[in-house]
Amino acid sequence: MVDILPDELKGDLADLYEVISHKVTFRLAQQRATYVVIEERRPVIKEKHTQKLITTPVPDRVLDNSIADASFMAGMLADKFQ
After folding, report:
1. Mean per-residue pLDDT over the chain, rounded
2. Are 58 and 68 in contact (CB under 8 A)?
3. In this structure, which long-range contacts are made by residues 52-59, counting pairs with CB atoms below 8 Å and at least 24 apart in sequence?
4. Which regions of 15-52 does DSSP assign to beta strands (E)?
5. Pairing relation of β-strands 34-47 and 2-3?
6. What global pTM score does this model have?
7. Sign of the C-alpha dihedral computed for residues 14, 19, 25 and 27 taken in this order
8. Rounded to 5 degrees, what are φ and ψ at 50?
9. What is the CB-side half-sphere exposure of residue 67 using CA atoms within 13 A?
10. Which of 2, 18, 21, 81 could make a disulfide contact with 44, Cβ separation 3.0–4.6 Å?
11. Cβ-based neighbours of 11, under 8 Å, separated by 6 or more
């Protein structure tokens, strides 16, 4: 599991926000001839003064809207040409 920390929760102004839930995404990855699923937890935070909800964005992917991790795609290409 990978916890992703948004910029709002870093630094001096972090106490202005509170985590109210998490959004979870999954990626398919490859580790030494085995496949694994990586779970990424992204907090949903609320600014205390304005009550505004902020969802941490999904990290950039190699291919948009793909669940495949770069390690999976590299491993698949390596396997194909071996």
Report:
1. 89
2. no
3. 53/20, 54/6, 54/8, 54/17, 55/23, 56/4, 56/5, 56/6, 56/23, 58/25, 59/4
4. 17-31, 34-47
5. parallel
6. 0.56
7. positive
8. -100, -10
9. 10
10. 21
11. none
What percent of the chain has pLDDT above 70? 99
Amino acid found at 67:
I
List beta partners, residue 29. 36
Which amino acid, residue 76? M
Cα maximum dimension of the chain? 58
Q: In this predicted structure, what is the pLDDT of residue 22?
A: 94
Nearest Cα neighbor of 58 from 19, 25, 22, 9 is 25
CA separation for the pair 17, 45 (Å, rounded) = 6
b (16+ CB within 10 A) / e for 40-53: bebbebbeeeeeee
Structure tokens at 72: 């999976």
